[in-house]
Amino acid sequence: MLATAAPLYDDLIPGGSHWSFVMRRGHVLRLIDETGGANVGMLMYNPENPLERYNMPDTLKNQHTFLLTRGHVLLSDMGRVFASIIRDDLGWHDTVSGTCNAHLVEKHWGKKTYQQAHNHYHRNGLTSFLNELAKYGLGKKDLTANLNWFSKVQVDGKGNLSYVSGHSHAGATVDLRFEMDTIVVLHTCPHPLNPAPEYPSHPLRYQLFRAAPVTDADPCKTSSPEATRAFANNALYHLFQ
Question: For residue 163, which of 191, 198, 203 has the smallest C-alpha distance?
Fold first, then answer.
């Protein structure tokens, strides 16, 4: 499903950090857990109209799932497909638990400032998202439920959520094929439910590829009637572009 074997771009985001960029339609974003144990928070927005953004409830209910994996699509609140999951080495990624904030990080792992630790200070997901969103004129009012790649959270019969430690291994990979231009906001801060005794800091390698053309028989496109309709919405959106 890749049109190019070698990446067009390759970079490493350190653990406990953040970054953002615009993914173009027809390209693949590969996420690689470099050392194992990573958590990658992600938000998505339409660069032409940032009021359109990733919609967690529609993504889950329209595909009748609690988790995300290969074959699923990531929907916007306009019923369009931001990206399709075309590869997944793990089979389970979280999108219900939100992100950590400064209070949670300090409570679990202590406060470590830039003056104390320089680039290894304790960042949190909420502030990381806000720092990146500001680059696009967005802010706190634009936050939505985020994805947590490489993290697994189970739920029991009473609705209690529990974090599954050791879920992701070194080299675990997810490929996202983007079906429309998308602002991608990332952080590598800890999952809010991670019980690790020390501040978890695991890097993310990301690579960009050109995607192969999407056919009518594409597994993501045909995975459900809802996904098929969302791809049709994309086609209409791109009709005059």
Answer: 191
Measure Cα distances from 191 to 45, 75, 141, 165, 187 in Å: 21, 22, 22, 11, 10
Mean pLDDT of 110-127: 90
The torsion angles phi and psi of 116, rounded to 5 degrees, stand at -85, -40
Query: Looking at residue 119, what is its pLDDT?
Result: 81
Q: How far apart are CA 102 and CA 130, in angstroms?
A: 12
Tens-digit pLDDT profile for residues 14-68: 999 999 999 999 999 999 999 999 999 999 999 999 999 999 999 999 999 999 9
Q: How far apart are CA 39 and CA 201, in angstroms?
A: 9
SS3 155: strand
Q: What is the pTM of this model?
A: 0.96
pLDDT tens per residue across span 159-179: 899 999 999 999 999 999 999
Per the CB < 8 A criterion, the answer to whether 76 and 82 are in contact is yes
Domain ranges of the chain: 9-237
User: Which residues have CB under 8 Å from 67's CB, separation 6+?
Assistant: 91, 92, 93, 94, 95, 152
What is d(CA 138, CA 130) in angstroms, rounded to the nearest whole number?
8
Helix or strand (DSSP H, E) at 106? helix 102-109
